[in-house]
Design a protein that fits this description.
heterodimer, A: 124 residues, mainly alpha, 5 helices, 78% helix, B: 235 residues, 11 helices
Chain lengths: 124, 235
């Protein structure tokens, strides 16, 4: 296979990136054709984890490229976040419910997951 | 040509501002100065000052945000590693996270609706309990505002990482896996950074929580919004 070359340096990233893009395309196709209630990228994430588990893809091939994307992921949220400039009116009107809902659900999820997991481990 | 130059400029400005914001946070060590939030505020201010509208900026911006898809796929690598690490507790983990996803969606939507939020805002808050790139995708599909979801997810991450460990101690949660799962589930990326400080078991728990909360939330948001709409709370 083309990608099974022992590439080093930037090429190693290029090969890994090609694998990630292939799984993204696969996830999108599966989500659309299977009418799955999941975003294609999430399906791609699950397919990649499964392929790694079944040793169809080796971790060393995707890890360098995945590491770059994960380390700098924050950069990728910036352009969608800048779209907030289209919503001044809405933010002025509804900042209170937004902030309250964010804070309340953060505490609720933290407490629910921590408490439940502790109980389930204690009983099991 | 002019279009290409403008797009290249938007990309360069975004990368440059983000790199500066990362440095600023490292220098000052303040969690509230999350580089993504600082970059968003700085870029909005710059675009307003220069009179550039969002559509023009986004011709370059979308060249960056395209990579959110492959970045979510890349989360499969840590997910694979951590599934191996906590396989013996798999059933408990699945139950806790599924419950956490439901609690996250309902607590966010009900609080917002009770305080008079519009349906569009309620829909944007539904995917609050997942890592930002998945929240953006889920909000887009659910008819919410991805920008609002992204900012709320990051802000709650900062809050959760700060109040999480003392809150869990007060609740008597001692299991290291439970602490990690709770931090990852409620505070995502920022919470995971905090879990890494606590230890390896906590870090693995946080990592798996990010991956599986993403799946559970993406699955639960459409039926939860249908239920809320039926109750007349989400239009």
């Amino acid at each position: 296979m083309l990608l099974r070359t022992t590439a080093r340096g930037p090429l190693r990233h290029a090969a890994g990136l090609a694998v990630l893009l292939a799984f993204y395309a696969l996830g999108e196709a599966a989500a659309r054709l299977g009418r799955l209630p999941l975003p294609g990228s999430v399906v791609g994430m699950l397919l990649l984890a499964a392929a790694l588990h079944l040793r169809r893809v080796s971790v060393s091939r995707v890890e360098p490229a995945a590491g770059v994307l994960l380390r700098h992921m924050g950069l990728l949220f910036v352009p969608p976040g800048v779209a907030l400039m289209l919503q001044y009116e809405l933010l002025r009107r509804e900042w209170l419910p937004v902030v309250a809902a964010g804070a309340a659900s953060t505490v609720a999820v933290m407490a629910a997951v921590g408490w439940l997991q502790q109980r389930l481990e204690g009983d099991g | 040509m002019a279009d290409l130059a403008a797009a290249a400029l938007a990309v360069a400005a975004t990368v440059g501002v983000y790199a500066l914001a990362v440095r600023l946070q490292r220098r000052l060590g303040l969690m509230v100065l999350h580089p993504v939030l600082v970059s968003i505020v700085a870029l909005i201010a710059a675009l307003e000052a220069l009179g550039v509208d969002y559509a023009a900026y986004d011709r370059g911006g979308r060249l960056l945000s395209f990579w959110l898809g492959p970045a979510v796929v890349a989360l499969g690598v840590p997910l694979y590693r951590q599934v191996e690490a906590i396989r013996r507790r798999a059933r408990a983990v699945l139950v806790s996270l599924a419950a956490g996803a439901a609690v996250g969606i309902l607590s966010a939507c009900l609080t917002a609706a009770a305080l008079g939020a519009s349906p569009e805002v309620v829909r944007s808050l539904a995917p609050r309990s997942v890592t930002t790139p998945i929240a953006i995708e889920v909000a887009r599909r659910a008819g919410g505002l991805p920008a609002l979801s992204a900012v709320v997810v990051i802000l709650s991450g900062v809050l959760g990482a700060a109040v999480g460990p003392p809150l869990l101690r007060a609740l008597g949660v001692r299991s290291r896996t439970a602490v990690g799962l709770a931090l990852g589930a409620a505070a995502h990326g920022v919470g995971t950074a905090r879990a890494v400080e606590e230890g390896e078991v906590e870090a693995a728990g946080a990592g798996i929580a990010i991956g599986l909360m993403g799946v559970a939330t993406a699955l639960l948001v459409p039926p939860a919004l249908a239920l809320l709409a039926w109750l007349g709370l989400a239009g």
